[in-house]
TrEMBL record:
The lineage of its organism: Bacteria, Bacillati, Bacillota, Bacilli, Bacillales. SUPFAM superfamilies: MFS general substrate transporter (SSF103473), Multidrug resistance efflux transporter EmrE (SSF103481). Belongs to the EamA transporter family. It comes from Rossellomorea pakistanensis. The chain crosses the membrane at residues 39-56, 65-86, 92-114, 123-140, 152-172, 184-202, 208-229, 241-261, 267-285, 297-315, 335-357, 369-387, 393-415, 427-446, 458-478, 499-521, 533-553, 565-583, 589-611, 631-647, 653-674. This is Cyanate transporter. Keywords: Membrane, Transmembrane, Transmembrane helix, Transport. PANTHER family: 2-NITROIMIDAZOLE TRANSPORTER, PTHR23523. The keyword Chloroplast does not apply.
Amino acid sequence: MKTWHYALIVFLGGCCFGVLSTFVKIAYAAGYSMAEVTGSQFILGTLLLWVVVLFTRKNKMKLSLVLKILVSGFPMGLTGVFYYKALQTLDASLAIIFLFQFVWIGTLMEWILYRKKPTRGKVVSIVILLFGSVLAAGLFGDGVKSLSFEGAIWGFLAAITFSTFILVSSIVGKNVPPILKSALFSTGGSIIVLLLFPPVFLLDFPTLVGVSQFGLFLRLFGVALPPLLFSIGMPHVGPGLGTILSASELPVAVLMSALILAENISIWQWIGVILIIGGIIMGNLNRSIGKRTSSSSRTTTILLILGIVLVAANLRPALTSVGPLIGDIRTDMGLSNVQAGLITTIPLIGFAGLSILAPRLGRRFGNEIMLFAGLIALTIGTLMRFIPSIVMLFMGTALLGLAIAVCNVLLPGLIKHKFPGKVGMMTGIYSTSMGVFAGLAAGISVPLTNSLNWNGSLAVWAILGVIAVVIWIPQILNKGDSKGQVTKVKMGGMWRSPLAWQVTSFMGFTSLAFYITVAWLPEILIDQGLSVATAGWMLSLAQLAALPASFLIPLLADRYPDQRVFVGMISILYVTGLVGLFNSSIGWAALWVVCIGLAQGASFSLALTFLGLRASTPEHVGELSGMAQSLGYSLAAIGPMLFGYLRDFTHSWTVPLMILFAAVLFQFFTGLLAGRDLYVVPDGERQKEMYPAKKVL
């Protein structure tokens, strides 16, 4: 069999464990006691294993070794007792969360018993797992009130005994055949269960027949299949990948409890489940990858590209989802137009404040680590906006703004470093990813409010953040030379470069026009007679129209030494769309929105491409990116708030739209200067822009 066949076998073994809790809850609901359910599983399961052993090759074993393996099975029996006891008072979807604490408990045991100090990656994975456990257990809000602390204690005891079983089973009987070893473990577990719960149900024939129906499933999925599947697959996939694959138990258990037991699983609990799995992957992936470095370069590249796409996908939904909901937020929170504009402005202030420091943080800790930290902060900030409070709304918005700033600045440098010959293509890919999810967020924000309210509609994008965190984990486990091998660049040189200021100005006016549109286009269209939902989808249409331009412009710009022709095309599209908005014609609104969307997609992706094309090294790209985005977003930060103020002051959209016209005009002139075939060369002295060698077309 191929490696993926063995991986699938281990994955199925984890899935088998995942169905146990559902069958146990069904057995309890049918009137059977914990003693009857636990006893039938272990007794019948052990008998089944010994039947299998009879048909396998026999090995002579010393009595002392047999006794050691039997005693090592005691924690296995206690795990079943404690876990099934927890299921009497906890939902199946919650009991499994407590059981999965065995991951960090096992690490703690290794530290105490073997002086094996956990690595930094392991500690980070445990923190992620614990945070995910808090979410998955529903401990936010009223979750604590509904939690059975008795059940929680039993679940935690099950995690401790399971950690003990994993520890002793890994050091006892290493040369014993897996099936025989599993039978002995199960026998030891059965001894403990029978001592605690004498099997009196065996003497009651009707009870024995009834509980055996459930015992059939429990012994099959809990005692027979998993050891068999693991014994086949684990030797071929290794302990690291094996642990990751066997974590399939968790989502299967939660999914079964939702589908069959009809337990209510909130979106935050699912996020917690994803985080727990992410923590397990992070803690074990290095063991899995370490043995396959010679054949993993292609996989590593694919994971890196996927990670970049997901990082980019998280950089706009938290912002574009606000525009269609600005009216609901303003009404529900009692905000003025200026205050409502701050919801879009605050992230831009964060962009401006932290962008200048982000390159230094990237050099100090590594771009991969800082992008990972940014994703976590972005996810937390998005979740904070779920709490219906003005303070949490603005604090969460500020936090996600700082997080996006870090990711905004470091992504271009990372791309220049990892893909030096494909800057245009990779910029097109990640700018398109931003556009796709920006448009999606704008389009579904209003429909989501029907079931989640506006705060839930904003917070739902935390799911995307969690997914990105999990996918980015391999990059921080295998980060290369991005830290500690980067040449120090003097900041003063970049700031004295005319070309750097021209790129910065183009980025600033591009961002100014973009964020004004994101924040206020729906309101403009609503005042012209469109419904709230239609206006939201118009913003989504603008974002979707930007996609082809977002992808194609960087590819084309990278092929030509001079990009000024693209600047002219962008300005024509922008002016056409804005003139159409001035005419206030609802029938042609879609056309004007498409023109604006194309211009925005092209201009924003071109601004990002300039960062890679106007600098010759990854560290120069980082410094130029920090400068351009810091000052550029400082200019953009005043846009939404000033737009709202002018609307309140004039009671008309005419003057605010004139500001947008002015931004497009300045964008055109600065773009003509930034689009020249020049390099920024910051050397700490008076700067000279140098003509680079012509690119091969």
